[in-house]
Amino acid sequence: MSFFKLIINNVLRSARTYGSYFLASTFSVFVFFTFAMLTFHPQMRGGIQGSSGDVSELAGFGMIASQVLIVLLSIIFLWYSFWTFVKARKRDLGIYLMLGMKPKDLRKILFGENMLIGFVSIFTGVGLGVLFTKVILIVIENLLGIITGLRFYFPTLGILLTVVVFLGLYLLISLIMTLRIETETLSQLGKSDETPQPLPKTHPLLVVLAFMCLAGGYGSLVYFIYGSSGMGLLLVLACVLLTVLGTFLFFHQVVVYFYKGAKKRSSYWQGKKLLGIAEGIYKAKSNATMFALIACTASVALVGISVTVALGSSETGSRNSISTAFVLNESVTKADQVTNTSKTAQEMINIIKAGGHTPLYSQVITYPMGYQEKGTQDQEVGTYIAYCMKASDYNQVAKRFGFEALHPKADEIIAPASTAVEENKYQEEELSQRQQTLEVDLQSGTKELTLTSQPVRFRIANMYRFFIAPDDMVAQFQIAEDDDYPMIRYQLLDFKEWRTDENVNQKLLTLLHDKQDKYEELSMAPVDENLSDKEMEEHWEKLYNDYYLQYESRYEGWQKQRQSNGLILMIGVLLGGVFFIFTASIMYFRLFGDLDKEGRYHRSLYQLGLQPKQRHQIVTKQLVGMFYIPMLVATIHSAVAYWGIVQLSSLNLWHYFFIIIACYGGLMTLLFIICRWRYLVHLDVRAENPQGF
């Protein structure tokens, strides 16, 4: 038999062992290829159509970062899996050595088996990616809201990058790991299963240290949020390191200590408990590192996916947008000044009506106001300029568009919330916490007014501060006549279907873009140098009134957020899928890698007269601990980390976290049911049939 034929036969005969390894590797190749295909797509390389430069930059960075993360996860997965296979096949490897095979040839077999699986998984993953390229592009274009669509192309560069990266990865892991096989002796390979294992050691101080590390890690996060920000980086680093150390100590010491404590109870000698606890001590110790790794990586994955799902939601994407579908703004010298913006607003109303919708329209003037804030010791902090709207104008707009009315008192100015963060903050604060004193510049002098922040969201522009003041107060602002800060007129348009009617939005945006392009073209055109100063001033004033246009679009902003958040959501979900597949495969390897050893143990129990139901109960309890203890620890870690994110963002995003935890729990339960079923079938065959090995 040739060497290559031997390698193929070994892989085929170990299909159960290598099956999940192959599927997990294929899935990681498929996801990597998906990111590579999008990275080199002609439309994506030039930037996502209809998006800002920031979104396109985020897309490029996100694709590259995702590919790097997949490679890092794959390295950990392949490294752990390789040693799991070696352990599972130590008896076979020992037989090869007993028959006279040289260690060099043994390494060649292991190297060839791993590379064979690598070649097939690369071919299968890339093949599936190419086969479903069009489907992937359709899903991505809908997720990112790319109106023109992503055209199909043959991803030659994506295929080449995927093959080179994963081929190099398999070569690297196979070479490094097979070189270490020579350190294993013949007796270790052939008799490792029969070697008695010493009772795992624990120490009460290490058990206490585990809980202290976890408490210190959680406490560092709490202090980082509520305490001094000067040590922010050190606190975050301490939180991560202490939590990881505490997690490893928890599984290596606390869990084993718990089993050893249960062994001292009088109930230990009651039938099944004796078997379950005695076996549990050794399983807890041998699986401790795997459990700790799964718990730590699962914590990061759960938090990452929860955050990306929250960011990718339409709710989060439109939380900080303007309050109406479109806002046109311009500087004016008088309230009834007729400009290009006024004419454009009427054209937009006609387009909305032609689309079968009912437009809502209103215009309002805002006035500049100079003011100073006072510090806690009545010392001047700074001088600022803000824009104010008359209370009557605001309430007219509020009535038209369905906002909450606001009525400032005689000596009061109201600041509405412009973002969801401000709205939530104002809702939680007492009235006294939301008030401060301002010194406002009036024509009659400086006057102290009370500024009250209200939890009513109203936003018509990207201003730093925007106030609502009594009508008679606005008329007294001294800076209102200063040419450097003119009045600003806002024209608000809205229609109920602004989010769903893509056609009308595109017509409106095309109209606005054409007018802006026209103004830019005319403003760059040469001007007659023979014009007098007055004629030059009249020329630019006419150009401004006839062509200048500035606007904000809720749909356009939502579309850009949808693209960036959709991209984040896609990355989070795909990387989460890779993590879950790797986790499931590692647990499968660990469970079925010792199947023959466990089969001999259960064969002994069968010969002692233990009923199948009792053996199944013992196995089920062990599997529950194996699947759900790391999940429980990961859930606690991720909940604490997510709490910190919620506190820092001032947004209630917990329902997204609970949805992800429920999905993760559901997938783990499904995996548990499948693995328990298959594991018990194989155990029963080995326990009740001597020929089952």
Automatic annotation (TrEMBL):
Membrane topology: Multi-pass membrane protein
Domain ABC3 transporter permease C-terminal as annotated: residue spans: 68-181
Compartment(s) of residence: Cell membrane
Signal peptide annotation: none
Entry keyword set: Cell membrane, Membrane, Transmembrane, Transmembrane helix, Transport
Transmembrane segments: 21-40, 60-82, 116-140, 152-173, 205-226, 232-259, 291-312, 567-591, 623-645, 657-677
Family: Belongs to the ABC-4 integral membrane protein family.
Protein name: ABC3 transporter permease C-terminal domain-containing protein
Organism: Enterococcus diestrammenae
Lineage, opening ranks: Bacteria, Bacillati, Bacillota, Bacilli, Lactobacillales
